[in-house]
Amino acid sequence: MKLVVTLVAALAATSAFANEPAVSPASKGDPKAAENIVNQVCAACHAVDGNSTIAANPKLAGLNAEYLDKQLVNFKSGERSNAIMSGMVASLSPQDMLNLAAYYSAQKPKPDTSKDEALALLGQKIFRGGVQGAGVPACASCHGPQGMGIPVQFPRLAGQHSDYIYAQLNNFRLETRANDGAKMMRTIAAKMTDADMKAVAAYIQGLR
């Protein structure tokens, strides 16, 4: 399952979660060169270390660089729509975005806990086994049993804010977010109920 975690103020995470490879190799990014932009632009919403404490803003720490770069590129092109992020990336160059992606991917994610354990237990079943009869696959099949993701292909989900995860799933369901390449996330989200989304989001927040 491809949840995209929106990038910055939505960056996430901000699945949050489409994952086509970035336009340029993220390995060309220079974390040190991103520090001024992080401090002046990104930190207010995502924190200097990428561990946002604001539920609506995705945690960026530890997300793979290719995924982060792709989200920034998509915000800039308009392929991914978000009023706040569109303004944030407007003046960024392709190299700036690579640098930011490299910087946040190198930050250490801080673990979190589920706020509703009963709900999280329901979400665990969906994350590990999907929704039988509804055609919803296990999230773990793409994002890994511990939600660590697969670099380049699928983003890390573990520890992401439940509010952000739910918002991105709902955006995919409504198709207000459509940067998921072959429509994988839109197709999956369309088969999920609101309760399914809230449950799996609750589980992901405490996943580590």
Concise summary:
The protein has helices at 35-46, 65-77, 83-89, 94-105, 117-129, 140-143, 162-174, 184-189, 194-206.
In words, what does this structure look like?
With 208 residues, the chain is mainly alpha-helical. It folds into two domains: 26-105, Orthogonal Bundle (Cytochrome Bc1 Complex, Chain D, domain 2); 117-206, Cytochrome c-like domain (Cytochrome Bc1 Complex, Chain D, domain 2), CATH 1.10.760. It contains nine helices and no strands. α2 crosses α3 (83-89). The longest helix has 13 residues, at 65-77. The chain is globular and about 50 Å long. The relative contact order is 0.22. The model is unreliable at 1-25 (pLDDT under 50).
List the helices and strands and how they pair.
Elements: H1 35-46, H2 65-77, H3 83-89, H4 94-105, H5 117-129, H6 140-143, H7 162-174, H8 184-189, H9 194-206
Helix pairs in contact: 2-3, 2-4, 5-9, 7-9
